[in-house]
Design brief:
Blueprint (H helix, E strand, L loop, with lengths): L1 H11 L3 H6 L14 H26 L3 H17 L1 H7 L10 H29 L1
Length: about 130
């Protein structure tokens, strides 16, 4: 997902990858100028957390393909709407809240993440056994 937003930013000029990695509004963290790799790792940690929640509930409830996809969508949907407060809170130059092209890139990348969660589950199951 991060790579897709980095590519979208490089091609379109819309600062969606910058928005994804931005932590400048978070107390303490925002006072430090972090290298891009560290900001990306912050985002990966959040993604890993969502992945672990997804895996836990998929295992607990023994979900099939469609229900896993629904769970992945439910976990990811709030991230789509984080676009708006993150755009407003950012101190860096990021897309404005009414930039629908940027919101489309943001949404597509997060929907890709939801599908990825669902598709990776069988891989994890095989790896586990």
């Amino acid at each position: 997902m991060g790579v897709s937003l980095k590519l979208a930013e490089a091609v379109s000029g819309e600062k969606v990858y910058t928005l994804l990695l931005n932590v400048d509004f978070i107390p303490v963290l925002g006072k430090i100028t972090w290298p891009e790799l560290i900001e990306f790792i912050f985002h990966l940690l959040v993604s890993l957390g969502l992945g672990l929640i997804f895996y836990h509930f998929t295992m607990k409830w023994r979900l099939g393909f469609r229900r896993r996809l629904s769970l992945a969508a439910a976990l990811t949907l709030p991230a789509l709407f984080l676009y708006f407060p993150l755009s407003l809170l950012s101190k860096k130059e990021v897309p404005s809240i009414d930039n629908w092209e940027a919101f489309l890139y943001w949404s597509a990348a997060h929907i890709l993440f939801a599908f990825s969660l669902n598709q990776l589950y069988p891989v994890l199951e095989r790896w586990k056994t």
